[in-house]
Design a protein that fits this description.
Layout lengths: L2 H16 L7 H14 L3 H6 L2 H10 L6 H16 L8 H15 L5 H15 L2 H10 L1 H9 L5 H20 L1 H27 L5 H20 L1 H8 L2 H13 L2 H18 L2 H16 L3 H11 L6 H17 L17 H8 L3 H15 L5 H10 L10 H15 L8 H12 L6 H19 L5 H14 L5 H17 L4 H9 L2 H8 L5 H15 L2 H11 L3 H14 L3 H17 L4 H6 L1 H7 L5 H20 L16 H9 L3 H16 L2 H8 L5 H17 L2 H8 L8 H13 L3 H4 L4 H17 L5 H6 L2
Length: about 775
């Protein structure tokens, strides 16, 4: 369809909007704007599509339009502003729409309209010429927005984004509006000071709390976005004093807002004044035994430079961990100078809350690369020994997971004699959570060679072998699954390490993996197939499977093919398809087995699971490369690679010897007889776009490869086993497919036309179920 036809239909659609026709759900309207943004690139196109007339009509009579239409118009205006210079002449229309909308909706009663208005205004501030129009025509919007409290998460966010953008760009375009930005900041800081005074006197009300959150949020955003604004704010000691005072008296989400602002001061400002405030707050919270506030301040302190503030934050986190190890009977032996009152720290560490607190502290230490191996190792070793007060299992798991993640990220070789038994003890718990189990196995994989080489941990590795044997047949499928993942990672990481391989062979773990391919749970079957592939690529383990269970590569492939063809669960079939793909890439199967793969792969192309279909197509592409195209191994790695140049491939094919060409033609005949060509044709009509695209790319390569002028002469050679008529029929089938008809399937103009037709159809036919249209978007 031509561009003029699309413009005609779009113009009809916007004429409906001008008549106040509504759409059931604005999801479709968002899709319409997205499509317009990808297809319309000039003011002329906007004019011919009817968009400009629509905006002018709404701006002249906003009060006559439903809020959905006004919001839609503002969203289009936002997109026009984002277009920058392309739509320069339409900015006046946008300003008129904004002014007219504000005149009607300045009471903030319609949150949706005002939210769209603020988003449009924010975009206007980003462009110099728009900003100039804004401060000339709409400064009352800024003033009234500052004075009016709003509710609702999205509206509040849109409002704070707008005000922050005004301040940032006022400082950026200083010749136009720095005074405006300064005035807004002064207004915000005065409000913050009033709230601080009222909070100290406990007389602030709910509306003031909302305005306080808005004020600090705006300051945080504009300081994040502009160094000039940040310097201005930091230069006002009263503002910093207010922030410090509020941090001392606020709690919960209000306190978190202060923390977020302090984070900006620490990471982007890092000046003496803000660092002094941070030091004072952290010290005060420690002295007042406000552990969670001290923890938050420590988190902020550890950002930025490696200075004494960071060291103070680390001490505030590590002292409770170290002190906790003495919590039962040895408190007096803890001689380190404490930031916290000793008696209150002692009481706190005897509560169940301490475990959650320490878990969070360990996470922070892990994220900031802080060394405290001894404390965390000791904490993990005692977490399951009854040293702590009776912990809820979820709290205990949280603490142990935090310890394990930390210990997995640092060098713990010296502590393995204590850590090994502790981790093994956790793994042996009958009620172990599988996430905790996964953390245990991650640590053991990292430590395992050192444990095998350490006489003090040999008994642990021996017992671990028995534990893994038991867990591969555990009642909880999650444990069986994670145990298989442990085996896979161990083999992949230490394939050449004979100590590790001998440990696996000692406990016949490879045989347990083979048995697990028939597990009753699909996730376990999938993980077993993945593990099996790793075992087969280790000659020692492959040899053991063959001698112990008679398993060869071919018999393993046959087993996996059976899973691909018969398993009812998608996860297992995905693993099976991936297994076959990797085996083809490794080129470790004989020709008979490779040919036996063709039929099941043809079936897999029609699988209900997208991943199975995609992987099957990858395998088909490799079979085509090997059996027909005979191109170099660089093309064996995946079905579609951007580096593959179709013309270069087809040229290389024509350079092959005549004997090679004849072999390729026989391969083509065999693949055609197995249904490969037919399956590829079906892929071109698959409901999934990615499958269509992948099938199309393979087909294009195939079409270039079978051009008669380069290959038919080999069919006519005396003694060629390929029947000429059959070859011509195959080639005709391949070349008859019009690959070009799929290239525009997702053309942006087609998308726009589809959206327009769907919306117009609902206006013209009231019997259409609009819910079905919404589902499409």
């Amino acid at each position: 369809m031509s561009a003029s036809d699309i413009s005609t239909k779009t113009r009809i659609l916007f004429s409906f909007f001008q008549k106040n026709h509504l759409v059931h759900d604005d999801t479709v309207l968002h899709s319409l704007i997205d499509s317009l943004a990808k297809t319309v690139h000039s003011e002329e196109q906007l004019e011919t599509a009817g968009v400009c007339n629509f905006l002018r009509a709404v701006s002249m009579t906003v009060d006559e339009y439903d809020s959905q239409i006004v919001t839609f118009a503002l969203n289009i205006a936002t997109w026009i502003v984002q277009g920058g210079g392309r739509f320069h002449n339409l900015q006046t229309t946008v300003v008129q729409l904004i002014a007219a909308t504000w005149e009607i909706h300045s009471t903030f009663e319609n949150k949706t309209v005002i939210e769209a208005l603020f988003k449009c205004l924010k975009e206007m501030t980003e462009y110099r010429y728009c900003f100039q129009m804004l401060i000339t025509n709409t400064t009352d919007i800024v003033t009234q927005s500052l004075e009016t409290a709003v509710s609702g998460l999205f509206l509040t966010r849109a409002k704070s984004d707008f005000i922050a953008a005004v301040i940032k760009n006022a400082f950026k375009f200083d010749d136009l509006g720095q005074q405006l930005g300064t005035n807004i900041l002064q207004t915000l800081m005065r409000g913050l000071n009033e709230f601080t005074i009222n909070s100290a006197q406990s007389v602030s009300d709910k509306s003031e709390n909302g305005q306080f959150r808005f004020t600090v949020d705006v300051l945080r955003k504009c300081c994040t976005q502009s160094d000039r604004v940040l310097k201005y704010v930091v230069s006002h000691q009263t503002c910093l004093d207010d922030i410090q005072g509020l941090a001392l008296c606020l709690d919960g989400s209000d306190f978190q807002i202060i923390v977020d602002f302090l984070f900006v001061l620490r990471t982007q400002g890092n000046d003496t004044k803000s660092n002094l405030i941070l030091r004072d707050l952290l010290t005060t919270f420690c002295q007042r035994a406000e552990f969670y506030k001290a923890q938050k301040m420590s988190e902020v302190s550890m950002k930025g430079l490696n200075d004494d503030i960071r060291d103070l934050g680390i001490s505030a986190l590590t002292q409770p961990l170290e002190f906790g190890l003495f919590v039962q009977t040895q408190v007096d032996k803890f001689s380190r100078n404490l930031l916290y009152p000793r008696d209150q720290l002692h009481l706190f560490m005897r509560t169940s809350k301490a475990a959650s607190y320490m878990a969070k502290s360990i996470v922070l230490l892990t994220d900031n690369d802080v060394q405290c191996v001894e404390s965390v190792s000791a904490l993990l070793s005692t977490s399951g020994d009854g040293v702590w007060p009776a912990l809820h299992i979820s709290v205990r798991n949280k603490l142990q997971c935090a310890c394990l993640k930390y210990l997995c990220s640092v060098d713990v070789k010296y502590y393995l004699p204590k850590l090994g038994p502790a981790v093994l003890g956790i793994m042996k718990q009958s009620d172990i959570d599988f996430v905790l189990y996964k953390n245990c196995t991650s640590c053991l994989i990292r430590w395992f060679p050192d444990m095998l080489d350490n006489s003090e941990t040999v008994s642990v590795t021996n017992e671990l072998g028995l534990v893994i044997q038991l867990h591969l047949s555990a009642l909880q499928w999650e444990i069986r699954d994670t145990a298989l993942e442990f085996v896979t990672e161990m083999v992949n990481m230490y394939n050449g390490n004979m100590l590790v391989l001998e440990w696996i062979l000692t406990y016949n773990i490879e045989c347990h993996v083979w048995t697990s391919v028939d597990d009753g749970e699909s996730y376990v079957r999938g993980s077993a197939i993945t593990a099996l592939h790793s075992l087969l690529h280790c000659k020692e383990l492959q040899g053991s499977l063959k001698s112990m269970r008679g398993v060869t590569i071919n018999s393993a492939v046959e087993k996996v093919i059976q899973v691909l063809e018969e398993d009812t669960e998608g996860f297992a079939r995905r693993a099976a398809a991936t297994f076959l793909q990797k085996q083809l890439q490794a080129n470790e199967m004989d020709l008979t087995m490779i040919h036996n793969l063709t039929v099941p792969l043809m079936k897999a192309v029609n699988d209900f699971d997208w991943e199975v279909k995609s992987t099957a197509l990858d395998c088909i592409e490799m079979l085509l490369n090997r059996e027909f195209l005979s191109i170099s191994s660089q093309y064996f790695s995946s079905a579609i690679q951007e580096s593959v140049n179709v013309l270069e491939m087809s040229h290389s094919i024509t350079e092959q010897s005549e004997g090679s060409a004849e072999a390729r033609l026989r391969g083509l005949e065999q693949l055609n007889d197995c249904g490969v060509i037919h399956s590829l044709v079906l892929c071109l009509n698959d409901y999934d776009q990615q499958i269509r695209e992948k099938g199309l790319a393979i087909f294009k390569v195939l079409q270039h490869a079978v051009k008669r002028d380069s290959m038919e002469k080999y069919v006519l050679r005396d003694g060629c086993v390929l029947n000429k008529d059959k070859f011509v029929s195959i080639v005709d089938t391949i070349l008859a497919v019009r690959t070009d008809q799929f290239e525009t399937y997702e053309d942006e103009n087609s998308k726009l036309l589809s959206v327009v037709d769907d919306i117009v159809s609902t206006f013209n036919n009231t019997d259409i179920d609009e819910e079905n249209i919404i589902d499409c978007y």
